[in-house]
Amino acid sequence: MDPFKTTGEMMGEREQNLSVKAYDVLLNMLINRELPVNTVLQERRLAEMLTISRTPVRDALNKLENEGFIGRSGGRTLVVKEFSIRELIETLHVRRTLEAEAARLAAGRVPAATLDAIEESINALLAAADPSPQQDWQIDSQLHQALAHYSGNALLMQYIESLRLKTRMFNMRQVPERFIKGHHEHLAIIAALRANDAEAARAAVANHIDNVRDSIVKRLSQI
């Protein structure tokens, strides 16, 4: 504890930490669809659930609203929003642009040991008898986060992660045909990174996200 901090400063830090905690918990619930579409988000109930005061919950909700994860019904009541196909296409379009550039920048920067570990995880997942969606997402994240991290651009990394989470929320109907194809595309990205081929890495990521977009849009159009 800093002996020179005032009581107000310490209380402010505690509220900030609780706001981060509330944000992380609520975002995870949204991503895992534990809060269904159109669920009304009431500060009091959420604060009781998290056993914290309403102020950090309010801060977390404001951040989630600003980031587009939740919205307002009738312009007033906060609810879990339903994303449109148009929003999905726009999100994936921006992801394609940002992640392709991240891959170009990351070529030659990602340590061989990191690529080895990700490739090993992908191959183990492909060989698994019954992999879970959580395992699939975790391994998918390993590669995409490595690309963002080794791009060397912190702001680019932040934007990419936010957009990836939104894409996961969009995918409310499974596209099982993407499992094997998607991870083979990941392996192609890794191969380009191993070869320090910036253009091939950029093209491999662009192709991967184009295929994600096409599969999800095709599935949604059939429902």
Automatic annotation (TrEMBL):
Alphabetic keyword roster: DNA-binding, Transcription, Transcription regulation
Domain (HTH gntR-type) ranges: 16-83
Pfam families: FCD, GntR
Keyword Electron transport: no
GO molecular function, one term: DNA-binding transcription factor activity
UniProt-listed InterPro entries: GntR_C, TF_FadR/GntR_C, Tscrpt_reg_HTH_GntR, WH-like_DNA-bd_sf, WH_DNA-bd_sf
Identification of the protein by name: GntR family transcriptional regulator
Organism: Sodalis praecaptivus
